[in-house]
Each structure stands twice: as structure tokens, then as C-alpha cells.
Write a structure and sequence with these properties.
- Helix 2 (28-40) crosses helix 3, helix 2 (28-40) crosses helix 4 (54-68) and helix 2 (28-40) packs across helix 5.
- The radius of gyration is 18 Å and the shape is globular.
- The longest helix has 23 residues, at 84-106.
- Helices cover 61% and strands 7% of the residues.
- By secondary structure, the protein is mainly α.
- The protein has a single domain, classed as Winged helix-like DNA-binding domain superfamily/Winged helix DNA-binding domain (Arc Repressor Mutant, subunit A).
Length: 108
């Protein structure tokens, strides 16, 4: 950009019209927590790993599943396992978050 030229002002209203509004339950932290649950295979282990109360983690996962319209995990007595659609979601989520992390680190 030539010296003295300013970037155009960001028009938040235009931006919001271009993207569908995401439910509040679809937050970056919730998505990352979802991956930890998948990796740990247990809500309790994931909660301990992330220093979050198990009931708060469970609520966030349920809200995310509600926003997505289908379950990500099957709740079992021994832990949590990804459903078939959950496996697809988690694979896509891993790739998306890895790309996000690479993008952020490229600008540090």
C-alpha cells in the first residue's frame, strides 16, 4: 500500500451480512474443548486436563451439539466416543484449528 494511503474503514454491518451468524455455543474455546474430550475419551479426564468443572464442560458440549443439530459424542458408562458424524466433524475441526494456529503464528 502506498505511503499515506489508509485502509478502508471496516463496515461491520456488511461483514455480518456476508457470514451466517454463529450460535454463541460455537466458540473457539468450546471447539478446542471438544477436541480434548475426543483425545481423552472421557469428560472427567478432559475437564481435569483443562481445569474446568465437568458439568460446565458437559454443558458446553451439549450446547455445541444442539447448535450443530446432531450429537458429536456417544455417552458411555466408560467414557465418551465420537459418533460417525462426530468423527467427521472432529477431523474437519482438527484441520481448521491447525490452519488457524498456523495463521496466527505466521504473524507473531
Amino acid at each position: 500500500m502506498p505511503a499515506g494511503q489508509q485502509l478502508p474503514m471496516f463496515d461491520d454491518k456488511i461483514f455480518q451480512r456476508q457470514l451466517p451468524k454463529m450460535p454463541r455455543s460455537v466458540q473457539l474455546k468450546t471447539l478446542r474443548l471438544c477436541l480434548v474430550v475426543a483425545e481423552q475419551g472421557s469428560l472427567l479426564k478432559a475437564a481435569q486436563h483443562c481445569a474446568i468443572h465437568p458439568s460446565a464442560l458437559s454443558r458446553r458440549i451439549r450446547e455445541l451439539e444442539r447448535a450443530l443439530g446432531e450429537p458429536i459424542f456417544e455417552r458411555q458408562p466408560w467414557g465418551m466416543a465420537a459418533t460417525v458424524s462426530g468423527q467427521d466433524f472432529l477431523a474437519r475441526l482438527r484441520r481448521a484449528l491447525a490452519e488457524l494456529d498456523r495463521t496466527v503464528h505466521a504473524f507473531k
